[in-house]
Write a structure and sequence with these properties.
DNA-binding, Chorismate lyase, 25% helix, three-stranded antiparallel β-sheet, homodimer, 11 strands, alpha+beta, six-stranded antiparallel β-sheet, Arc Repressor Mutant, subunit A
DNA sequence: AAGTGGTCTAGACCACTGC
DNA sequence: CAGTGGTCTAGACCACTTT
């Protein structure tokens, strides 16, 4: 039952706490603990794996730093939900320019929602074949002041088997992925560019044609390292900006 | 000599390791240890402050996570330099689009360099008065393929007393701040927008007039929490993009 | 009161660096 | 070889949450 024989530990590449961390991640991937559910206590994990509680703590500290679990004193350790660490700042960096009025979380209007075969680029991105399908969503996000951004969202059908033309994506899609498919978004990579808005998008955003827009090309990675979502957004840049803090 | 009486620890708001961390940061701010210099060993700090070595380790782990120190097994603990954690990715997120040819670190050509009184916005930003001065640098950064970005860089004279019209800023200004003024840039906040390039900037960047440019408004914070540099960059967005990874 | 995570001390041993 | 940071165990006590 021990995670590894301690005698062989010296031969292993990774320190013990890192192997504990990995074994916990594996069990999250397998779905043993879904987002929002609690993990066993430090002592329980330590006993199960045959290591000291302090070593388990270090593994859990690592997971906390990675944002994969949330620990609450007196309550327990929980698989992080997309809600935790305030999605608004974790994955949503767009902010109104000033007059910091809270305009609330943006609402989404879906413009289209179709299943189609994966393009070569999508095949490469998602690691799927030409016979596989992807779902493409096109939506317009607005807050009380009006339209903010236009967005195309693409996911591989394989990982979201029972989608249909009627599937309603909620505002917080990452929580939706977690709750319904056990998919934990562990990392997001974004590329930002300034582009000239097409006539169609400018119309949707209620801007003059050829306005400069902030384009965000985002890939969301699941715990297993594979891309589960590709998203291209074009955002008004007159009233909004993208915030980033580097430490 | 002890950091705090342990008896009074219960009354303190912060845990011991956090107070150790803060006292170490204070000494970095005071200039006792400058960027690149080494701190005392864990045991030495522990003895000096009258705490256990494990507590000092936790404080140093925190500082490592914050990027303020770098630890090297067998050698010691060093105040982080701007070079550490590879400046290219820490504070320089601009990358060529594809054909990932390494085009090298961009070179800078200075277009102007003047001292002038602080505008109201600059007074607020830097916390200085209307009688204080700022230095404004305007530069064009290029790599082997040509111009990449135009940039205006503003620093308060107070913190950089012996600047002159002849001061040559090196490419890596943060290392320069550290080595020459003991200023450790602890945090950088950026706001990104898409803008329409002015005729002058488009000319400098060798782009058609009114091209969409990626504008980056950046404030650099020193260890003491004050802003030490304000920078506005406008970057070509046809060949370059801004990369960001959210975890 | 019992169970959880958070802090702090204690000490052993390992791995790496530089003399 | 001595000195550094890195890992791992061990156990005490505290703070918070739930029952």
């Amino acid at each position: 039952m021990a995670l590894v024989e301690k005698a062989s530990a010296k031969l292993e590449a990774l320190p013990l706490y890192a192997r504990v961390r990995n074994s916990l991640v594996d069990r999250m991937i397998s779905g043993e603990w879904k987002p929002g559910e609690s993990l066993p206590s430090e002592f329980a994990i330590a006993e199960e794996l045959g290591v000291h509680q302090g070593t388990v703590r270090k593994a859990l500290d690592t997971l906390t730093a990675e944002g994969l679990v949330v620990r609450r004193q007196g309550r327990g350790t929980f698989v992080a939900e997309a809600e935790d660490q305030s999605i608004l700042f974790r994955f949503y960096r767009l902010t109104r320019n000033s007059g910091n009025k809270e305009t609330g979380f943006p609402d989404s209007r879906y413009l289209s929602q179709i299943k189609s075969s994966a393009s070569p680029q999508e095949q490469a991105l998602f690691g799927i074949s030409g016979r596989d399908y992807v779902w493409r969503f096109e939506r317009l996000r607005s807050d009380v002041t009006g339209p903010i951004l236009w967005e195309q969202l693409i996911v591989p059908e394989k990982r979201f088997p029972d989608f249909s033309e009627k599937t309603q994506l909620p505002n917080n899609v990452y929580q939706f992925y977690g709750a319904n498919y056990g998919i934990i978004v562990a990392k997001v990579a974004e590329e930002l560019r300034a582009v000239t808005g097409s006539r169609e998008v400018c119309d949707l955003l209620e801007m003059p044609p050829a306005s400069p827009l902030l384009e965000i090309d985002r890939r969301a990675f699941a715990l297993d390292g594979k891309i589960v979502e590709w998203r291209i957004s074009q955002c008004r840049s007159d009233t909004m900006h993208y915030r980033n803090e580097l430490k």
